[in-house]
Amino acid sequence: MDIQNDDSCILCGKNNEHGLKLKFNMDKEKQMSYAFVKVSKMFNGYNGIVHGGITCALLDEAGFYAIMSQDIITVTMTLNTKFKKPVPIDTDLYLEGQVIEKRSRSVIASSKIMLNGTVLASAVGEYFIKKS
């Protein structure tokens, strides 16, 4: 399958009127990404809490962009997520991704969602290299 970006991603797409329009900063030297996000009630799970699937998607995106900092295009193979505390709606959150290991055909990256320095959720994913 050919991968094409049409800017309609639910998380970072500029052309998705319902999306979060995340803007990740990438640091090539540190092999990391980071972004700030405030998730609207539209992505509610339980009242006042970001839906778990959206939480996973945010963690996946942070890992993806950490890998993108190395000019590598990937697709997600696995994502092992830990939910530590509820992720609140309409609150300024910090997302961070970090490359852990580059393999011959995949990259391992970690990610986390934080509020005031406290980790609310984290993940480790393996991403298949499509193009580098």
Helix content: 10-25%
Q: Please tell me the CATH architecture by its name.
A: Roll
Sheet with the most strands, sense and barrel status = 6 strands, antiparallel
Distance between the termini: 16 Å
Radius of gyration: 14 Å
Number of strands: 6
- Tally the helices: what do you get? 1
How much of the sequence lies in strands comes to: 35-45%
Kindly state the mean pLDDT as a whole number?
92
Widest sheet: strand ordering: 1-2-4-5-6-3
The structure class reads mainly beta
Under CATH, the topology can be stated as Thiol Ester Dehydrase, Chain A
Tell me the CATH superfamily: Hotdog Thioesterase
Q: Any idea how many domains?
A: 1
CATH top level is: Alpha Beta
Order of helices and strands: EEHEEEE
> What coarse outline follows from CA principal-axis ratios?
globular
Low-confidence stretches: none
Walk me through the structure.
The protein has 132 residues and is mainly β. The protein has a single domain (26-131), classed as Thiol Ester Dehydrase, Chain A (Roll). It has one helix at residues 52-68; strands at residues 25-27, 32-38, 73-83, 92-102, 106-115, 118-131. A six-stranded antiparallel beta sheet has the order 1-2-4-5-6-3, with helices on one face. A hairpin with a 2-residue loop joins strand 5 (106-115) and strand 6 (118-131). The longest helix has 17 residues, at 52-68.
